[in-house]
Amino acid sequence: MSTAVVESAEPPIVDALTGYTIALTAARRRDEFGAALERRGARLVYAPAIQIVPLADDAQLRAATEHCLSERPDILVATTGIGFRGWMDAAETWGVADKLVDVLAGAAILSRGPKASGAIRATGLREQWSPESESSAEVLSHLLAAGVAGKRIVVQLHGEPLPGLVDGLRDAGADVIEVPVYRWIPPEDQTPLARLIEAVSVGGVDAVAFTSAPAALSFLQATAEMRLLPAVLQALRGPVVAAAVGPVTAAPLARADIPYITPARFRLGALVREIVEQVPARLGQRLQAAGHELEIRGHAVVVDGSFVTLPASSMALLRALAVRPGHVVSRRDLLNLTGATDEHAVEVAVGRLRTALGDPGVIRTVVKRGYRLECEPTPTTR
Predict the structure, then answer these.
(1) Residue 1 forms part of a structural domain
(2) What is the predicted pLDDT for the residue at 8?
């Protein structure tokens, strides 16, 4: 006679970002970035802050290319992979790609980062140097240290002017040829971006991720145009985490005195890992209440390992009680969080929260005073 084995029910696995809302402002590789975060449980908001406009038929790009062909450059600075490939593609349509590669082969080639290096090597060329920081500032320092007076230097732009690099080279006596391959402009449909900005202003998302400096700059410019800059800055300096793929991307945030997280390696995968590590560590709150372990997340709570989604009003109520765990919060103080006009509504809201948490004992009623989480009170700071 066989004996049936009864397996105990295990709570579902709660991923690191389950319960958190992450906003993506990327124009490129959005799906790849979003899928990586979704696999770790995140709820996503897509709001492109920019769009890329290629300049394959632009007169400035054609003129810069002809300049390179007629006056061989001494140095080439490639700043982005997409930009360098776009330049080569445009040259191909004009029938001068082979001649351009031949001309550039005689120059000392500098690459701002690995993506630009990959695009360079795809043409059969090879970079001679690349900065560890992947910044234009380090490129400028390297060139100035070597001396650029009298040199003809081609700088492939990456969507916006590079006045620090270009002006620095010209001030040092170089003849600079700027190659504008594409440019950034605001998104055609700005509604998602406007909705994101409004959500950030009230703490409606937990993190905003940026993968390019123009996107960060466009986000802040749109925020200012909506007259929400003070509220958004306050949110990004407090409950909303700003994440950038690297210090170049984060430069507009830094200028606005916005703290940000960034990975040690300036890559999309590394940024995903940084968000996975930092967002729960910065925003999550763990409590022991009435013998239960609570982990308060962005729009949900994990109770003894089980994920519980709560409506916004219940989350606000739980957060208010968790500001000083174990201390009493009056009905009057909780009244505004329910959106009601009498204290009876607070009782109803607390009842709903108790039901959602699975144990009424997690929240204790203190007669004639209010409510508190059933845990040891935190020390009062004097």
Answers:
(1) no
(2) 43
Give the mean model confidence (pLDDT) for residues 92-109: 94
- Residues near 9 by beta carbon (within 8 Å), at least 6 away in sequence: none
Same domain, 340 and 290: yes
Strand partners, 45: 23
- Tell if the pTM clears 0.70, that is, is over it: yes
C-alpha dihedral sign at 207, 42, 266, 136: negative
Cβ neighbors of 180 (< 8 A, separation 6 or more) are 55, 58, 60, 61, 64, 157
Read off the pLDDT band of 313 (50, 70, 90).
Answer: confident
Q: If 0-12 CB within 10 Å is exposed, 13-18 middle and 19+ buried, where does residue 141 land?
A: middle
Characterize the bridge pairing of strands 21-24 and 207-210.
Answer: parallel
In this structure, what DSSP letter does residue 362 have? G
Q: Which domain holds residue 143?
A: 53-181
Sort strands 43-46 and 21-24 into parallel, antiparallel or unpaired.
parallel
Asked whether the predicted pLDDT for residue 135 surpasses 90, the reply is no
Give strand ranges (E) for the chain: 21-24, 43-46, 51-54, 75-78, 108-111, 152-156, 175-179, 182-185, 207-210, 241-244, 285-289, 292-296, 300-303, 306-309, 329-330, 363-366, 370-373
- Residue 381 domain-assigned (yes or no): no
Element holding 315 (H helix, E strand): helix 312-322
Question: Do residues 46 and 146 both lie within one domain?
Answer: no
Phi, psi for 244 (deg, rounded to 5)? -130, 145
- Computed over every residue of the chain, the mean pLDDT equals 88
In angstroms, the CA 208 to CA 159 distance is 22
10 Å CB burial of residue 290 (0-12, 13-18, 19+) is middle
**How much is the pLDDT for 339?**
65
Q: Are strands 207-210 and 43-46 parallel, antiparallel or unpaired?
A: unpaired
Range from 56-60, 257-261, 280-284 carrying the lowest mean pLDDT: 56-60
Residue 70 lies in a domain: yes
Do residues 182 and 55 lie in contact, with contact meaning Cβ atoms separated by under 8 Å? yes
Interval 188-241: pLDDT, tens: 899 999 999 999 999 999 999 999 888 999 999 999 999 999 999 999 999 999
Angle, helices 213-225 vs 191-201, to 10°: value is 80
Backbone angles phi, psi at 38, to 5 degrees: -65, -35
Q: Say if residues 298 and 239 touch (Cβ distance below 8 Å).
A: no
The structure tokens 């995968």 sit at 269
